[in-house]
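Comment on the following before class.
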Amino acid sequence: MSEFIDTCRTLVGAANVLTDSADLERYLTDWRRRFTGKALAVVRPASTEEVAAVIRLCNEHRVPVVPQGGNTGLVLGSVPDQSGTAIVLSLSRLNRIRGVDTINNTMTVEAGCILEQIQNAAADAGRLFPLSLAAEGSCTIGGNLATNAGGTAVLRYGNARELCLGLEVVTAEGEVWDGLRGLRKDNTGYDLRDLYIGAEGTLGVITAAVMKIFPQPKGQLTALAAVEAPEHALRLLSLAQERCGAALTGFELMSNFCLQLVTKHFPQMRLPFPQPYAQYVLLELSDSESEEHANTLLEGLITEALEQEIAQDAVIASSIAQSKALWNLREHIPLAQAEEGKNIKHDVSVPISLIGEFIRVTDVQLQEQFPGCRMVTFGHLGDGNLHYNVSPPEIGSQDAFIEHQSAINRVVHDSVHRFNGSISAEHGLGALKRDEVRAYKSDVELRLMRTLKQALDPHNLMNPGKVI
């Protein structure tokens, strides 16, 4: 493979073809540091043309390609396997914001742009880019699109797919499809954009995108409400949608145990209530009229929720600092889980109306089969996406508990399937869930997916072993 590596160096520059083990490690190890793959090299192109040239070279030599953005995925979708036959195609150097159009309310960005960079560029133009994730300081928009990322504002603005109007893609054969049209209406055939979004790099490489931006809200307010059960949270959601309409941009559910972990491992954080409650809801309103109007809406909602005994207690943030403090409670849940030790993560979705029943039924099943397990249940209630995670019992060997991961996954995923849900809501399938999903998709659906893969990547070089 020396000729192949030498040609890669010619195409992108010797400094951008990494082969030393010390340089490769951060590209080969997944975000949770539980798996390290192997690769021929990490190749770092700086333009769409260079990406296309590298892909054509890989076709010629039949070298598999693992596209990678910020490598913040949780399902082993952005790291190579142990064969050592693939290259990692890092898109980190494709990091230009090509243009901002405040009349069309769009921004054209390259795949390697960090999400936070795009948020800041939109703000500089007096606009809002609403996609928001815990990893926004390190994840890239290419990875967000490849996994159809969700985040905390899906309720109002939709997933990454809904925020994208057009793509530039290097196909599996090294051709460039320029679909950067920025149109909200284009009824001229198959929607190629939607094929590549959510495909996790298995059909081609997203190199740039046209993303929607929005007017900055005039007022943005946050509240934390305590509720007795997930069913009460659903009643609060219905009331909030009825009273606040499109102003409701965030609605996050967190169990008491989630926040117990946060305050245990981050003692500088405090819950704003004198006593604990079973469940909590974090609400955010973004109002286009004024902060005063947003405050009137939120105060009216909270007052009515308390009067109807939907909520047991509530606080409204009176400053930006207080709002950040409330959001920090939510964002520190995964960090607190990591501090607590090993755990088994599930990123699932079920119809919103069935979330309460799903949690109740599945909790019982897990306790019956794995007594003492602790449920870390939180997520984007407004769009039906739960992070339904299982921590080991407080006493006993964590490693011994983790050995039950396959059995625990089966309990959770079978329950998700019975509730007509999905075993991956926003993290994708990667390699981790590739085989698992076969138990829940029909033969027809799997056959259609394989047909698309074969048609668009006939040599199976694009991120092989992932998704399908």
